[in-house]
Design brief:
5-stranded parallel beta sheet; alpha/beta; 5 helices; 5 strands; Rossmann fold
């Protein structure tokens, strides 16, 4: 890994405002300081819902806000991270288990996180051979775990995926849940 790690949404990393110019400037500034990106990890917010609302009670503006915050931010980050990646670099988009399982009262989060899975898979096909793009779904048992522990685990996981031995791992959705989802 000769480039640098670009973190978005992590403690200590400044999340750019949700507009293309801010995101582009953040990535460009990072690359000017540290060189090309080897690994970008995008921790999508909200990872777990702050509230639960049945679909029949969820307002369209709130639904749109969640989709915009999650999907549009991920799209803009990837759009500007991909050209800044070193050859063979990796992008890891982090969502919750709700991307795959759905959840009572969390349709808004499930829809947004599932859209990120599709967006990542489409980009993985387009950038095949030049970049690796994957999604990791954080399991529900992490809800009670301190955020710093989740982020450390994700960083270790992301760095492992950049290894040359994983050069063909792209377009995948992986669960990080200590095996608890395998029931």
């Amino acid at each position: 890994m000769s480039g640098h790690v670009f973190l978005s949404g992590f403690r200590g990393s400044e999340a750019p405002a949700l507009d293309e110019t801010s995101i582009q400037t953040s990535i460009r500034t990072s690359c000017e300081r540290e060189g090309p990106i080897s690994l970008a990890i995008n921790l999508v917010a909200p990872l777990f819902p702050d509230f639960y609302a049945p679909l029949d009670t969820l307002s369209p503006p709130l639904f749109d806000d969640v989709l915009s915050e999650c999907v549009e931010r991920t799209f803009l980050l990837m759009k500007h991270q991909l050209p800044a990646l070193e050859n063979g670099g990796s992008i890891l988009n982090v969502v919750s288990h709700l991307a795959l399982e759905g959840g009572r009262g969390a349709g808004h989060i499930s829809a947004a996180h599932h859209a990120i899975v599709g967006l990542t898979q489409a980009a993985a096909r387009s950038w095949s051979g030049r970049a690796r793009l994957n999604v990791v779904c954080v399991g529900k048992q992490f809800i009670a775990v301190e955020r710093a522990l989740i982020e450390d685990e994700l960083l270790d996981f992301g760095v492992a995926l950049v290894a040359p031995s994983f050069r063909f791992l792209s377009g995948q959705t992986l669960m990080l849940d200590a095996g608890l989802g395998a029931y």
